[in-house]
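Hi everyone, sorry if this is the wrong subforum. Our group has a chain we'd like a structural model of before ordering constructs, and none of us has done structure prediction before. Sequence below.
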Amino acid sequence: MTGEPSRRVQIQSAPNLRDLGGLVTPDGPTKSGVVYRSATLSSLTDADASALAALGVRTVYDLRTADEVQAAPDRLPEQIERVPLDVLADSSLSVAARLGDLSGDPRAFAASLAGGQAERLFEETYRDLVRLPSALAGYRAFLLGLLDESREGAALFHCTTGKDRTGWAAASLLSVAGVGADDVYADYLQTNTDLLPALEPVFRQAEEHGVDREVLMPVLGVRESYLDAAFAQMRAQFGTIEGYATDGLGLSGDELARLRALLV
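Answer:
Right subforum, don't worry. Here is the predicted structure as C-alpha cells:
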C-alpha cells in the first residue's frame, strides 16, 4: 500500500487516526488532507484537540449510537462541527455497538462471544452496515456531507474503536474513489497495527478478570472475513460499488462523479 507510513497521524488521545490520501487509483492518488478516519474522540486532550484542528478538520461525522455518544461524548474544538449519524439505529443486536459492555463485565462479555460466536456476530453486523435502512441513510448523509460546499475544511469520521462502522465507511469510500481491493483491505487491516496497542489497558483489565487476550482478538481487532461479509452483501443487493452508491445510497451520477473528483 503506497504511502502507508505518512498516512498515520500521531495524536495520542485519538487512536487509529489516519489520512485516506495517498492511495493509488487509475486516475492518480487519493488526495491527502481531505478525509480522515479515527476511533473515538471522547478523550481528546486540549493539546490534541488543537492538533486535530490544525489538520484542517472542520466537520466530524460520528457514526456511533445515541447511547455510545451519551456515555462518551466527543471533545471537539468550537470550530469543528459534529454531525451525528447513527448507522446502527435499526439494529438491536450489533456487537460493534456493545464494546462498552467489555469494561463492565469482561468475563461475561467474552463468554457470550466464545466458540466462534464473535466472528459470526461481526460478520452479521457488517452485512447490516450495508442493508439496514439506518445504515443506508447514515452513509448517504456522510457522502452528501462531503459534497456540501458550504462546509469548509477537511472531514473526519469515526465510531468507538474506528474499525467496524468506520471500517466500512472507509472501504466503501475508497472503493468509490477507484482504489484497488488490495489497498482497500490493507487500509482496513491497518487497524490491527494502529489500534490494538492503544487498547492494551482493555486487554490487561480483561486478563485481571481471567479472560485471555486471544479471546478478545476477534472483538477488538479486525478480520478479512468481516469486510468480506460487507462486500458480499453489497454485491448481492447492488451488484457493484457504483450500484451501492446510486441504488443503495441514492447518489446521482453527477454526485458520484463529484465525489470521485473530491477524493482523487
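For your construct planning: The radius of gyration is 17 Å. The first helix runs from residue 4 to 7.
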